[in-house]
Specification:
The protein has 848 residues and is α+β, with helices and mostly antiparallel strands. It contains 23 helices and 32 strands. The strands form seven sheets. Strands 3-13-5-4-8-7-6 form a seven-stranded antiparallel β-sheet. A six-stranded antiparallel β-sheet has the order 11-10-9-15-14-12. It has a five-stranded antiparallel β-sheet with strand order 17-16-20-19-18, sandwiched between helices. A hairpin with a 2-residue loop joins strand 7 (122-133) and strand 8. Helix 5 (154-167) packs antiparallel against helix 6 (171-186), helix 5 (154-167) runs parallel beside helix 9 and helix 9 (317-361) packs across helix 16. The termini are far apart. Pfam families: GAF, GGDEF, PAS_2, PHY. It comes from Paenibacillus phytohabitans.
């Protein structure tokens, strides 16, 4: 028949739209209107099978048929129309057909049966697929291949597929394994895993291909490539095959089905002819045959497994059904992997967020905050998967990575502050919302804003560039372009250009896992409002005095020590004792002050010392010991024992260095050991109260946390703060304030020992206590004992009035730690409870 003749690939395709009656419209089909194409009612099928539409009444009449029945069945379609299906397949086989359910909602529900039909005097096996379409039973027949009955490899394929899935570590690795396995099963030249984003644009995330083929991995495609109606069909029709891309479509006659008076609905048809637009696209890619498997979860299409072959290829039903099953399994498995990846990513992000939060909440000095932010630049950017970030803190604007200019950032921050809700705002299309951003959309098409103070003077902004600037086109998109008289036709390049237009001025979207950590970052905001404002007044003086106390201790230790001491700030010696002058052979009357410390370090030992200094800078609680060679002013090489400690001197981060000659057996060696032990004790105790300091508490909390996590025991945290301490200082003076803190510390120390708890001075007039394994009753008793113990001291608030004594407010948190929790969140929880205790009238205990 004429319909079976070879299609000339240079012949123009019919690119017009059809209406519901199957009549052609004048509107041409192209990228701009392909979402209107009625692809479910093409009135055509592929020629490798035949389609029959049969009534479901007692006669089971064939009322529609594809025109190629004469080729495959030996009977013209006109002859079959109006005859009973029984005349074609026999009564017993018809009865077997009718016993199958035709109420399929998707291809997984389709019923299959092998029918024997006499063709030109010989019984021929046909693979039959049946379903219902608007009242008619659709019977699709394909000649059964010799491979249909051979299933020896099926179990091995399934076993291998499941085994490989188990061995993969993440979603992308699992996708790659699936692509490779499907390629092995089906034998196509190329198999791709294709995922949709929130706007239905697609991306190839995994690919298995024959050597020499141009890679498509990483390719991006616009939503128009797979329009809405096609995606809806993929939800119902899980597996679609084009045996020969260059096929000549076979019409169904008559065009209109008798029950509806409209073209036959082929939504679930296996043989349904494909959109001419899609055929042209495939031909322009040099593709000869395809199979597409839908990836669906919770009734949502999120991706496709797309198979391409460069010549015609027929895949037997047995293998197609197997792929259908594996596609369903893979859809569920990959979705779970995606959820797991998202969960693990969020855990990693929370760790990074904790580091950033700790920079702000762990430092009272803005100088130290700014310094540590510079050290954590990569953490700050990775936290939001951003290419740039801006942090404004204490009127200083710092830029990291690729960002707009300082003036542009300050102007943008004002606009973002007006848009912010609950101190945050994010967009992936900044230049479409904010006109000025068009000037820097290559750097900041996406922004995420977080205010750090209620007035929004302090803030953080993360930037992402325009997405087209960061996409790598795998291979040359200029390939596979067909030039026609009417210009460039549909091709991979034109599709890619369409995608570029779609995503212009757009960044990659801010994912849920990034937005989920904003509440954790808002603890910085809470710290500013609940803690730092209070610290700015009540604790600044105390902290300064504590630093001075510490400096006095260090200076006293240095002066009285029989070993050499140096104080080093910004790599320069700012103080040294007489033993240091003698050791370095400094002439009488001269000083080491202002000289680089490394000047007196032997060249061979400098790299190690720089590493020590780096460790101290990153972690001020670090206490480093070692040994190496130094050289004095006379050029004499000295073998020395070395101890380095991170301290604050003159309000700046500094390093205290202790040096002693290598032999430790003499009295000087014992003195060196004694001094370093005392120095280490100074680093972990508070100079005013002799309680453990904040660094010691953090080390204790980390250890206790791990033990409670392992034993699944509750952990108690009490944040304790002297009420209205600022006003107490104003009345009694700083020395009086010191005596008050010491008295409260003595009570806390006594009570903590009685209960087996650990207590430390946290900062200023604030203390913190922790206890593992406490019950709720024991936690309340301990908190009440602390509150009452301080009250019973009866320290008068005003020396001239009898009423009013010093009290404390206490915020408590009792909880069994989870692996997803962080110690900083625990502290923030107890401090939030403390804030509520103070808001409730002070001298209160509040538990969260």
């Amino acid at each position: 028949m004429s319909d079976s003749k070879a299609h000339n690939e240079n012949d123009p395709l019919n690119r017009t739209l059809l209406n519901e009656a199957g009549l052609e419209l004048n509107e041409s089909l192209d990228l701009t209107n392909c979402d209107k194409e009625p692809i479910h009612i093409p009135g055509l099928i592929q020629p490798h099978g035949v389609l029959l539409a049969v009534t479901q009444g007692k006669d089971n009449l064939i009322v529609q048929a594809s025109r190629n029945t004469d080729v495959l069945l030996g009977i013209p379609a006109e002859t079959l129309l109006g005859t009973s299906m029984a005349e074609l397949v026999g009564d017993s086989q018809l009865q077997a057909l009718l016993e199958r359910s035709v109420n399929a909602k998707e291809t997984a529900d389709l019923q299959y049966i092998v029918l024997k039909i006499e063709v030109e005097g010989e019984l021929t096996d046909f693979f039959s697929i049946i379903h219902e379409s608007e009242g008619l039973m659709i019977v699709e027949l394909e000649p059964a291949s010799e491979e249909e009955g051979a299933g020896a490899n099926d179990f091995e394929w399934i076993r291998t597929f499941f085994g490989r899935m188990k061995q993969t570590a993440g979603r992308i690795e699992a996708s790659q394994a699936a692509a490779e396995q499907v390629k092995e099963m089906l034998g196509y030249d190329r198999v791709m895993i294709y995922e949709f984003d929130d706007e239905w644009n697609g991306k190839v995330v995994a690919e298995a291909k024959e050597e020499g083929l141009e890679p498509f991995l990483g390719h991006h495609y616009p939503a128009s490539d797979i329009p809405k109606q096609a995606r809806e069909l993929y939800l119902r029709n899980w597996l679609r095959t084009i045996v020969d891309v260059h096929y000549t479509p076979v019409p169904i006659i008559p065009v209109l089905q008798p029950l509806t008076g409209k073209p036959l609905n082929l939504s679930l048809s296996i043989l349904r002819s494909v959109s001419p637009l899609h055929i042209e696209y495939l031909q322009n890619m040099g593709v000869g045959a395809t199979t597409t498997i839908s990836l669906i979860n919770n009734n949502k299409l999120w991706g496709l497994i797309t198979c391409h072959h460069h010549s015609p290829k027929y895949v037997p039903h047995r293998i197609r059904n197997l792929c259908n099953f594996l596609g369903s399994f893979f859809s569920s498995e990959l979705y779970q992997r995606q959820q797991l990846d998202t969960y693990q990513t969020e855990l990693q992000l929370r760790t990074k967020a904790t580091r950033i939060v700790d920079v702000f909440t762990g430092n009272s000095s803005s100088f130290r905050v700014i310094e540590q932010l510079g050290e954590e630049e990569q953490t700050l950017l990775a936290l939001m998967d951003a290419s740039g970030a801006a942090v404004c803190y204490q009127d200083k604007l710092m830029l990291y990575g690729v960002t707009p200019s300082q003036d542009q950032v300050r102007e943008l921050a004002g606009w973002l502050a007006g848009k912010a809700r609950d101190y945050t705002y994010c967009t992936s299309r900044l230049s479409l919302e904010y006109e000025s951003a068009k000037a820097y959309k290559d750097k900041a098409s996406g922004v995420l804003y977080l205010a750090l103070t209620p007035g929004q003077q302090n803030y953080m902004i993360w930037f992402r560039p325009e997405v087209v600037e960061i996409v790598d086109w795998a291979g040359d998109p200029a390939k596979a372009v067909i030039q026609e008289n009417d210009g460039m036709r549909l091709s991979p390049r034109k599709s890619f250009e369409k995608w570029r237009q779609v995503v212009q001025s757009t960044s990659l979207p801010w994912k849920e896992q990034h937005l989920n950590i904003l509440p954790q970052l808002k603890s910085i905001l809470r710290g500013q409002t609940e803690n730092q404002l209070r610290q700015a007044e009540e604790q600044a003086l105390q902290n300064a005095r504590s630093l001075r106390h510490n400096e006095q201790r260090y200076l006293q230790l240095m002066e009285l020590s029989p070993v050499a001491f140096f104080m080093i700030t910004d790599d320069l010696i700012v103080y040294s004792n007489n033993r240091a002058l003698d050791l370095m052979a400094i002439e009488k009357g001269k000083s080491l002050t202002g000289q680089p410390f490394l000047k007196y370090v032997h060249e061979s030992y400098r790299p190690a010392l720089r590493q020590y200094f780096s460790e101290l800078t990153l972690n001020k609680s670090q206490f480093v010991t070692g040994s190496g060679q130094f050289q004095n002013a006379d050029g004499l090489t000295l073998d020395m024992n070395l101890t380095l400690a991170s301290v604050i001197h003159g309000g700046k981060p500094s390093v205290m260095a202790v040096l002693s000659k290598g032999a430790n057996a003499d009295a000087k060696g014992e003195a060196y050991t004694s001094v370093t032990t005392q120095l280490q004790s100074y680093l972990t105790t508070d100079s005013l109260t002799d309680l453990p300091n904040r660094l010691a508490f953090e080390n204790e909390l980390t250890s206790t946390w791990k033990n409670c996590l392992r034993a699944q025991e509750p952990l108690l945290l009490l944040s304790i703060d002297i009420d209205d301490f600022h006003s107490y200082n104003a009345v009694h003076g700083l020395k009086g304030g010191d005596l008050c803190i010491q008295s409260v510390a003595d009570v806390l120390n006594l009570i903590s020992k009685q209960h087996g708890a650990f207590v430390a001075r946290f900062s200023g007039a604030a203390f913190i206590l922790t206890l593992s394994g406490a019950t709720a009753g024991e936690a309340e008793q301990l908190a009440e004992a602390v509150r009452k113990g301080v009250y019973d001291l009866q320290i008068p608030r005003d020396r001239y009035e009898e009423e009013g004594v010093v009290t404390v407010s206490i915020g408590g948190l009792l909880k069994v730690p989870l692996t997803t929790d962080r110690t900083s969140e625990f502290i923030a929880g107890s401090e939030k409870a403390l804030y509520e205790a103070k808001s409730s009238g002070k001298n209160q205990v509040v538990f969260h």
